[in-house]
Amino acid sequence: MTSISRRLFLQGVGGVAWATAGLGSYAFVFEPCLRLNVTSYHVVPPGWPDGLTVKAVVLADIHACEPWMPASRVRGIANLTNDLSPDIVFLLGDFSGGHRFVTGPVMPEEWGEALSILKAPLGVHAVLGNHDWWHGALPGMPADDAEGVRQALRSAGIEVLENNALRVRKNGQPFWVAGLGDQMGELTGPRRFRGLDDLGGTLAQINDEAPVILLAHEPIIFRRVPDRVSLTLCGHTHGGQVNLPMITQDFMISHFGSDLVYGHIVESGRHLIISAGLGTSIAPVRFMRPPEVVQLTIGNGGALSQS
pTM for this one? Predict the structure, then answer.
């Protein structure tokens, strides 16, 4: 090899090394820790009453842990949520950390205190996620049947919905918020689960024709949701977390058994929104799927800008 070709080769190797290091820094540090999008949707589901406009903010998959999602960052997200002035706030589960690549836990009372500043005239409502059931504040810590998470939310003034439906009114017009128990809550073996959800029992609590918003951690349930439900809101998938064309969706289908990954999905007139969430699971990495706060307008009010 001549000195010129050797120099070009080394420059090429160096360029690849720098590019790899830069990409790793982006995926492991910048996107999961420093980016935060506000993603806006305007949805008018079939049968939604004229004159009823509900502005909601949706937070999913916080996965509190050090150093990726400390209590201070949770508080910052809560402050941003308040700045958006929602009528109502929905929390879609997985408050506990989702992987072991951490420097320490963030205990439920810590992230719960951070979320206690959330304010909305129609309340803050939450469902639980699989990680809240499977273990304590981090994987490997003892599970407590999600009681620590449940208590932290209630201490923060947040309504916890587990197969419950709650009637809410805005300007005299009613709608229902229904929340399911987690669909993967009990581990029964390797990649085997027993669901704690009761869709039929939850919807049976609805005793009038007012529209229904359904909160469910996993979107697996969506294709069993009846037309009676105006809108289903889910998290869990992190939008794939690493968003690679074709590869991510194939992985999600093989790993989760579902092609429902991210965004606003309409099937047979039924509406679903899946949030990309805020934290990370399996590993502290995101690529082309940054953390997001979902800002949602339901009804005939003006559409919101997307950022």
Answer: 0.88
Between CA 161 and CA 166 the distance in angstroms is 8
Contact by Cβ (8 Å): 126, 85 = no
- Which residues, including other chains, have CB under 8 Å from residue 192's CB and lie 6 or more apart? none
**The pLDDT of residue 31:** 74
Closest to 131 in 3D by CA, of 188, 82, 89, 93 = 93
**Helices 108-115 and 71-83 sit at what angle, rounded to 10 degrees?**
20
Please say whether the dihedral angle defined by the alpha carbons of residues 28, 38, 216 and 163, taken in this order, is positive or negative. Answer: positive
pLDDT, one tens digit per residue, over 14-38 is: 433 333 445 556 676 667 677 899 9
243: left (phi over 0), alpha (psi -120 to 50) or beta: beta
The helix or strand, by DSSP H or E, that contains position 264, with its residue range, turns out to be strand 263-267
